[in-house]
Amino acid sequence: MRLTILGSGTNLHPARAAAGYLIETDHTFLLDFGPRTLMNLLKTSVDRHSIGHLFFSHHHADHVADFIPFFFDAVITAKMSPMSSPRQGITIFGPTGTRRMFGSILRTFPAFTPTPFPVGIRNLGETSVTIGKTTIMTKYMTHTPKLRCLGYRVEHGGRTFAYSGDAQYSSNLVELCRNTNVAVLDCSFPVQKPGTNHMNAHDCGRVAKEAGVKTLILSHFYPVCEEYDVKGQCAKVFGGKIIVARDRLSLRI
Q1: Which has the higher per-residue pLDDT, 102 or 83?
Q2: Distance CA 156, CA 193 (A)
Q3: Which of 37, 128, 226, 234 is most exposed, with the fewest beta carbons within 10 Å of its own?
Q4: Contact (Cβ atoms closer than 8 angstroms) between residue 122 and residue 131
């Protein structure tokens, strides 16, 4: 299993793309697809037309916006080269409201329908999805009131990876990350300047310690994080390996 970080920042971070993570197992899929992550995807060696499964943690714009140019490109490419297009189809997964929101996008944007390839949209609760030899499990995360959010746990070939999406500390998040090889957590703020509805570096360390995470990746940074040693703050709580995410960082899990 390979992880490539397409975006380690937030919506208006001046140097980082917003949330997006590319996972390669026996299939290739995305976890979130925020602004500017498509440009980072194009800088990898991965064929964008091979990506058939997109998993969204929630529906805030900084986690979904680059779906629109990605899908537009997929449709136009398939229509221009109908006999040679590699696109087999796209399935979109996410929490409650995913079918409604993405169905509206497909119906509203010009040229998005009818599509020249199959498109599926699935609302997920706490469940598991099997794609080939890869299992993706979900748990509800706590982010903002009245917004349903999911964290994802990916298992393949005896290795495990967890992604919190946007989240506050919760027992569900600890369980999502339990004994994972790698966990990417929402580290939006430093300890000195905590914000609402997200974790700070101390919170991330607490989750990793309680869950027994082997390698922790701090990500989803607001610009204020660049002024502080968030890795050092996290290390005061968690004694395992800590990586500060950066765009296009790629590692084998």
Answers
A1: 102
A2: 37
A3: 128
A4: no
Between the two ends of the chain, the Cα-to-Cα distance in Å is 5
**Cβ contacts of residue 214 below 8 Å, gap of 6+?**
179, 180, 181, 182, 240, 241
Say which residues have a Cβ less than 8 Å from residue 194's Cβ, sequence separation at least 6.
200
- Average pLDDT for residues 66-77, to the nearest whole number? 95
Of 153, 205, 150, nearest to 178 by C-alpha is: 153
Can the peptide bond before residue 110 be classed as cis, meaning omega within 30 degrees of 0?
no
CATH class of domain segment(s) 2-252: alpha beta
Q: Which residues of 1-17 are buried (b: 16+ CB within 10 A; e: fewer)?
A: bebbbbbbbbbebeebb
In sequence order, which ranges of 116-164 are alpha helices (DSSP H)? none
Instruction: Report pLDDT for 82.
Output: 63
Residue ranges per domain, the chain?
A: 2-252
Which pTM does this prediction carry?
0.96
Distance CA(160)–CA(146), nearest Å, equals 29
Cα(50)–Cα(14) distance, integer angstroms: 30
> What are 200-209's pLDDT values in tens digits?
999 999 999 9
Residue 210's SS3 state is helix
198: exposed, middle or buried (Cβ count in 10 Å: 0-12, 13-18, 19+): buried
Mean pLDDT of the chain: 95
Q: Give the type of residue at 143.
A: H
215 and 251 Cβ atoms separated by less than 8 Å: no
Q: Which of 150, 19, 141 is nearest to 96 (CA)?
A: 150
